[in-house]
Fold this protein.
Amino acid sequence: MLKKLENTWLADFFSLIFPNCCLGCEAPLTKGEKQLCTRCIYDLPQTNYHLHKDNVLSQRFWGRVPIEYALAYLKFSKGGKVQKILHELKYDNNQTVGEMVGSWYGQLLVDAALAKLDGKQEQIFDLILPIPLHKAKLRSRGYNQSDCFAKGLSVATDIPWHANVLRRNKATKTQTKKGRIDRWKNVDNIFEVLKPELVKDRHVLLVDDVVTTGATLEACANSLLKADTAKISVATIAVAL
């Protein structure tokens, strides 16, 4: 008991000297807060796409690839809180924030009856698959940021996720400054389904960190359709509007 009190005192002391700061506003986090302060969590720009099936993200895929549900948790804007969260996840090795955001969004999907709640309804999605990184990028970064988001979603919704069903066979250049046509050409035919038996006749929730034109998700969805996947839905941390 004494040792536990000492550890708590030391933790409180170091938090005063070296406080953890909010990723959104950089204010010191108070006891119980993790990654983001309460105010920034409250102010996160949610899309609420899970409440509207024919939302603007869904419309991006119309006539391109059949998507059952097109979901995104947050709205992306340059210099905003969401960009800071994504930067932490992708470039600062903050895998925890990806899992945390995934669990928050997963709970929203549960509340909206898009995922099972205490066994009272059937599961809409059969499994969660993250968009894979090329092996060279994975080796360089050390982890797949979309996998972190997928893990958080899985924990909150009780939907299984698999990190090794899909493979990216080509290292593509960044999509950031490409137009819609160039984005599509950049990812065309680069994904492969390694375990078709896991996706055959299933409803797959394909997840990524951020969606702009949807070219990457479209290309990956097409590879799943060739493997006889019954239905495909997509979910991302953020959408660039």
In short: The CA atoms of residues 119 and 158 lie 10 Å apart.
